[in-house]
Design a protein that fits this description.
By secondary structure, this protein is α+β, with helices and mostly antiparallel strands. The protein contains five helices and twelve strands. The longest helix has 28 residues. The termini are far apart.
């Protein structure tokens, strides 16, 4: 990204973001380097940039991204990584009772507390193991926490969970067949 952008500058763009991307600044302005690194920039290249310097910067960025991705995959095998403001939590899969969607964020419900994240439900669903099941466009449950299910009119089911709140969620018609299959219910 360049520092000198129309309307707001590159530093201001980073300051407004909730989740910082991997970024390399390429600019003729040298006076913003310290602030760029404070905001998490991977590198700061001052124009004119040689091909060799650009290649070194790009190689370094690729190494950082690969390392970060490998670490995340290792942690994701143990649980779900959730970012809440400046805090990062590793929530073990066995502690997750259910997950719900609310507008552009999701809430991960455990016995200890609820974790709110800006990640969408379909993004979280991809990271969950097989003992989780989507039962509605706005909810995913941990199959191990099901107490019982009850048939509702119109091909839907009410799913009762074994948690301290005695949560019950509705399984939509679209998801009912998969729920019955997972529970070996006919």
């Amino acid at each position: 990204m360049d520092i000198d952008l129309p309307i707001i500058n590159g530093i201001e763009v980073l300051e407004k973001l909730h989740h910082l991307p991997y970024i390399i600044f390429i600019t003729a302005m040298g006076n913003h380097a310290l602030k760029a690194f404070e905001l998490g920039a991977l590198d700061y290249l001052k124009k004119p940039v040689t091909r060799e310097r650009f290649s070194r910067s790009l190689d370094r960025a690729v190494q950082i991204v690969r390392k970060s991705t490998a670490e995340e995959k290792t942690l994701n095998n143990a649980g779900l990584i959730v970012t809440e403001k400046e805090n990062h939590f590793l929530i073990p899969f066995h502690e997750i009772i259910y997950i719900t969607s609310h507008d552009k964020h999701s809430v991960i419900h455990t016995e200890k507390r609820d974790y709110e994240t800006a990640r969408l439900l379909h993004e979280i669903e991809k990271k969950l193991p097989e003992n989780f099941l989507r039962i509605h466009k706005q909810s995913i449950i941990h199959l191990g926490y099901i107490s019982h299910i009850q048939y509702l009119m119109g091909g839907r089911y009410q799913v009762f969970l074994k948690d301290s709140d005695e949560t019950n969620l509705t399984a939509g018609r679209k998801y009912a067949d998969r729920l019955k299959t997972m529970l070996h219910y006919k």
